[in-house]
Amino acid sequence: MARPTYRIAPSILSADFARLGEEVRSVIDAGADWIHFDVMDNHYVPNLTFGPMVCQALRKHSVTADGRKVPIDVHLMVQPVDALAQAFAKSGADIVTFHPDASTHVDRTLQLIKAEGCQAGLVFNPAAPIDVLEWVLDKVDVVLLMSVNPGFGGQSFIDSALRKCERVRKLIESSGRDIRLEVDGGIKVDNIRRVADAGADTFVAGSAIFGQPDYKAVIDAMRAQLA
Ligand code: DX5
Ligand code: ZN
After folding, report:
1. Looking at the domain assignment, is residue 196 inside a domain?
2. Considering 33, 41, 73, 184, which one is annotated as catalytic?
3. Is 2 within a domain?
4. Ligand 1 pocket: which residues have CB below 6 Å?
């Protein structure tokens, strides 16, 4: 595979919710490539976070100092999916990913997201099979592999995600399509290289970045590992 352009996607799940706009601006100044936005409904996952209105409010903060828009990567951990996926698309999301097991009609949900002008992606839990990809890879822009069980930040990386990552990388390569392979959960400076070696090109990190006072130092250290 050609050398990938790596993307680092800080998850604002671990940011200070009382100062979210400022946190988004700080992490963008620190070098964030995407802003990862974890939507939890206390139904599909046992936690509750934020909705489309918060996404809309953060839109004006997701811009670099020189005016470049930083994509908002909305990770839906909700069931049902369709109405919220559309609401987020209309609220400034650039990428919308969802768990196929949370949607009754996966192909339709992907079409809905793309019809709104967003990139669409599927998310796979640690124990979830990936066979659905065979049938919808032509409609997918992002594959997001969970390396923790969804619902909370600060959990430990589950190693089987590496094997799954290798497998999905092969599928993507054989499709010939430009599909991002993103991994989410437990990613830190000391394991990001292993995740990249397994084929990932996009890395979500919440607690590793927002748990430290100097966001730029962490993102720089991650990039040094990837270099
Ligand atoms: C978990 C979320 C993750 C979470 C990652 O359900 O999808 O995006 O914020 O947090 P860390 O990096 O702390 O494992
Ligand atoms: Zn996430």
Report:
1. yes
2. 184
3. no
4. 11, 13-14, 36, 38, 75, 148, 150-151, 153-155, 184-187, 204-208
List all residues 6 or more positions away from 214 whose beta carbon is below 8 Å from its beta carbon.
Answer: 30
Say which ligand is closest to the CA of 10: 1
The CATH number covering residue 41 comes to 3.20.20.70
Residue 209 lies in a domain: yes
- CA distance linking residue 200 with residue 182, whole number of Å: 6
pLDDT at 195: 98
Rounded to two decimals, the pTM is 0.98
Phi, psi of 49 (to 5 degrees): -120, -105
Rg of the chain in Å (alpha carbons): 16
DSSP H helices in 60-156: 82-90, 106-115, 133-136
Catalytic-labelled residue, pool 38, 41, 94, 141: 38
Q: Provide the pLDDT for residue 2.
A: 66
Atom index in ligand 1 nearest the CA of residue 47 equals: 6
pLDDT one-digit tens code per residue, 83-107: 999 999 999 999 999 999 999 999 9
How does residue 4 score in pLDDT terms, banded at 50, 70 and 90?
confident
- Number of domains the chain is built from: 1
pLDDT at 1 over 70: no
Residue nearest atom 10 in ligand 1 by C-alpha distance: 153
The answer to whether residue 73 sits within a structural domain is yes
**5-50, pLDDT tens digit by residue?**
999 999 999 999 999 999 999 999 999 999 999 999 999 999 999 9
Q: Is 220 a residue of the active site? A: no
Q: Give the phi and the psi of residue 37 in degrees, each rounded to 5.
A: -120, 105
Per the structure, the complete domain to which residue 194 belongs is given by 7-226
Is 66 an annotated catalytic residue? no
